[in-house]
Specification:
four-stranded mixed beta sheet; 14 helices; 20 strands; alpha/beta; ten-stranded mixed beta sheet
Length: 447
């Protein structure tokens, strides 16, 4: 594994990925987030002309490691690390502009240059105000007082902003380009609605308008008609890579409601969040962490309240990129992955962090749920039922061998190969990548 071999192999690896990037490739999380989507996007992005975000806000977090430098992204698409790549924040995203500029400055300080010259924000995207963030905290406090628990939101204002959008009271980036007095009126209307819900809270519309005025000059050059940009790119046959935020089990329609996010983070959100036709999506990659994690409240059946769960979290450094909260850990749940595939129609899978299992004597995989002795046929929609199910496991022998230097499927230990094949056979989708470490090249390519 000397330098010359690594360089030669990495060039071969990049060539393979270039052939495999479709016209519009979508990368989606198949669990409850934190699957390592940023790594997969990073591996593919240097072949892409455009990398786009289609939903969510800075409640999402991706880490990309380039030459031992850790870049943390919350609103910026991960493709921003490539100088030849244009990055699009689509109309389905909600954006807290001060947080966006803080993120730009933080990553620029690590050596990432020319970010704003390669970034555009949809004029149809909605603005997250400080008032939305305050409202998020107020709602969580109310829930805690009423029911004794919170949903576990990031308190970044995402849910309240989507609520304003659906009530037709939201601020769009197009509004920032228009008449100043008209904008002031819209801000007053928005804050008035929030104050109606929380009359005892001190939220001033004039202060919110003043904050908007401070960053408008800097953000104006970034605001574009991204629906036009995306469809012009499709007409040119440009390579487009869409980076999903959050994950299928946090989707507001298909996830573990009400313990979900406020947007559609399944494949349908790509079309509505970017304005591109479904017929233009050629590849949907489902990212599967080799075990299961979750941040915040809400059940996941394979959660381990024991030293094994603690060990997974410790070895995997399972702390949220956005909140710093420790993630809850458990065995891989293939009921979840199969359900996610039903919704998204994955064309390929990418397994991440299989190296975290390297030291285990045995590993378990959930292949079903039992409810009162009856095997369920699908993932339940009712969270109260989910609270009562018991996971049905199969047990596989651990490989007890480091996988960090594996780069081909043949390099993996036989037991690790069995683990991958078990996933493929159960879900019915081929695995194309197996992540064996954090760095960009720490990945097994399966041709």
């Amino acid at each position: 594994w000397g330098p010359s071999f690594k360089l030669s192999y990495y060039n071969e690896y990049k060539s393979y990925l270039r052939m495999e990037l479709g016209l519009t490739t979508v990368v989606l999380g198949s669990q409850w987030g934190d699957e390592g989507k940023g790594k997969i996007v990073d591996m593919l992005a240097d072949k892409a002309d455009i990398v786009a975000r289609c939903q969510g806000g800075n409640n999402a977090g991706h880490t990309v490691v380039v030459k031992d430098v850790h870049y943390d992204f919350h609103l910026l698409p991960s493709g921003i690390v490539y100088q030849n790549c244009k990055c699009v924040i689509g109309n389905g995203v909600v954006v807290h502009v001060p947080s966006l500029f803080q993120e730009i400055e933080k990553n620029a300080a690590k050596g990432l240059e020319g970010i704003e010259s390669r970034l555009v924000i949809s004029d149809r995207a909605h603005v997250v105000t400080d008032a939305h963030q305050l409202a998020d905290g107020f709602y969580e406090s109310e829930r805690s007082a009423r029911s004794g628990h919170e949903l576990g939101t990031t308190k970044k204002g995402i849910g309240p902003t989507y609520s304003s959008k659906m009530l037709r009271l939201g601020l769009r980036f197009a509004d920032l380009k228009g008449d100043k007095e008209a904008l002031k009126g819209r801000v007053a209307q928005l804050i008035g609605d929030i104050k109606t819900r929380f009359p005892n809270k001190n939220i001033c519309p004039d202060e919110e308008f003043k904050k908007l005025q401070e960053y408008i000059p800097r953000v104006l050059p970034l605001i574009k008609d991204t629906v036009l940009i995306m469809n012009q790119a499709l007409a040119r046959n440009d390579k487009i890579l869409v980076e999903g935020a959050n994950a299928a089990m946090l989707d507001v329609d298909f996830g573990t409601y009400p313990f979900v996010t406020s947007s559609n983070c399944t494949v349908g959100g790509v079309c509505t969040g970017l304005g591109i036709p479904p017929t233009k999506i050629t590849d949907v990659i489902g990212v599967v962490k080799a075990y299961t994690t979750r941040v915040g409240a809400g059940r996941f059946p394979t959660e381990l309240h024991c030293e094994i769960g603690q060990k997974l979290g410790d070895i995997g450094h399972e702390y949220g990129v956005t909140t710093g909260r420790r993630r809850r850990c458990g065995w891989l749940d293939l009921v979840v992955i199969r359900y996610s595939h039903m919704i998204n129609g994955f064309t390929r899978l990418a397994i991440t962090k299989i190296d975290i299992l390297d030291t285990f004597e045995e590993v378990k995989i959930c292949t079903g749920y039992e409810l009162d002795g009856v095997l369920l046929k699908n993932f339940p929609s009712d969270h109260n039922i989910l609270m009562r199910v018991q996971p049905v496991y199969i047990t596989l022998k651990g490989w007890k061998t480091p996988t960090l230097n594996c780069r081909k499927f043949e390099d993996l230990p036989p037991e690790a190969k069995d683990y991958v094949k078990t996933i493929e056979d159960f879900v019915g989708v081929k695995v194309s990548w197996v992540g064996v470490g954090q760095s960009r090249d720490a990945c097994v390519i399966i041709q």
